[in-house]
Design a protein that fits this description.
This protein has 291 residues and is α/β, with parallel strands linked by helices. The protein folds into two domains: 203 residues, 2-enoyl-CoA Hydratase, Chain A, domain 1; 64 residues, Lyase 2-enoyl-coa Hydratase, Chain  A, domain 2 (Orthogonal Bundle), CATH 1.10.12.10. The protein is built from eleven helices and twelve strands. Strands 1-2-3-7-9-12 form a six-stranded mixed β-sheet, with helices on both faces. A four-stranded mixed β-sheet has the order 4-8-10-11. A two-stranded antiparallel sheet has the order 5-6.
Length: 291
């Protein structure tokens, strides 16, 4: 039975977990309970070997319309005493969107965003550590922080230039304008555009390609290798992590199955599990502390 969350719908079917942001009456606006639910749901997907790929979408006409502005001018004022859901480090309140982005960044499973409608503010920045983004023709995006008197959040100052390049990142953050799926596609923010009825089927088809053909442990390692590679100073760093991975995976039952299934022209049945068989090629990733 699927776990229930207050602000999300969650189900697993045939290797694919679907996370649906579920506050349609508020255009799935982000608030503290959604932050906690998103962090916990990725704990769920990581711990469940039945999950091979995660698809994230929104209920109703929006993906996520940004922070819930019900408190108006007090929405972004966090100078008071910490609340139960907040974490302070050296007197600075950690940004809730950043906590979600960092949790998604650490996911052991591939994450596909199916952007069904408006994705503004944290609604788009939370998507940046997701691996592949598909969008509906109804999708709209906006890094609107300067138009609200604040600054980019959810670790987007790290992710956004790496996804679309510095010039585009600066333009979108400077202007704060809302733009459509065509511009997002042209600048590399999204992978493809689909009619609304075709969006989730396209996301599931991509997920199915991963589920049916690949070794989950190898996918988990490849995800970490490529994201970590963005911070390497020299190709030798990549060569070193790849060499460790090849040595570890080359002796695995998955590698034997991958070769045998190919030679025998049959679908693979990889035996290794992400929860128990993923090798530790690097020191454990820790959430950074503020100095």
């Amino acid at each position: 039975m699927a776990t229930e969350f207050e602000t999300l719908l969650y189900e697993v079917s045939d290797g694919i977990a679907t996370i649906t942001l579920n506050r349609p009456d508020r255009m799935n606006a982000f608030m503290p309970q959604m932050m906690m639910d998103l962090i916990h749901v990725f704990d769920e997907t990581d711990g469940d070997d039945a999950v091979k790929v995660v698809v994230v979408t929104g209920a109703g006409r929006a993906f996520c319309a940004g922070a819930d502005l019900a408190n108006r001018a007090d929405t972004f004022d966090h100078t008071g005493p910490p609340k139960q859901h907040q974490i302070h480090v050296n007197g600075i309140r950690r940004d809730g969107g950043g906590r979600v982005s960092l949790r998604i960044f650490e996911s052991l499973k591939p994450v596909i965003a199916a952007v069904n409608g408006a994705a503004v503010g944290v609604g788009i920045t939370m998507q940046l550590p997701m691996d592949i983004r598909l969008a509906s023709t109804n999708a709209k995006f906006g890094f609107v922080f300067t138009r609200r008197g604040i600054v980019p959040e959810a670790a987007s100052s790290w992710f956004l230039p790496r996804v679309v390049g510095m010039q585009t990142a600066l333009e979108w953050c400077y202007t704060g304008r809302v733009f459509g799926a065509e511009e997002a596609l042209a600048k590399g923010l999204i992978r493809s555009i689909h009619d609304p009825d075709d969006l989730l089927p396209a996301a599931y088809a991509l997920a199915r390609e991963i589920v049916d053909n690949t070794a989950p442990v190898s996918v988990a390692l490849a995800r970490r290798m490529l994201w970590r590679g963005l911070t390497f100073d020299h190709p030798m760093d990549g060569h070193m992590q790849e060499s460790r991975g090849i040595v570890s995976r080359g002796a695995s039952a998955d590698a034997a199955e991958g070769i045998n299934s190919f030679m025998e022209k049959r679908p693979p049945a990889y035996p290794n599990k992400v929860s128990s068989d993923t090798p530790d090629l690097w020191p454990k990733w820790e959430e950074p502390e503020f100095e």
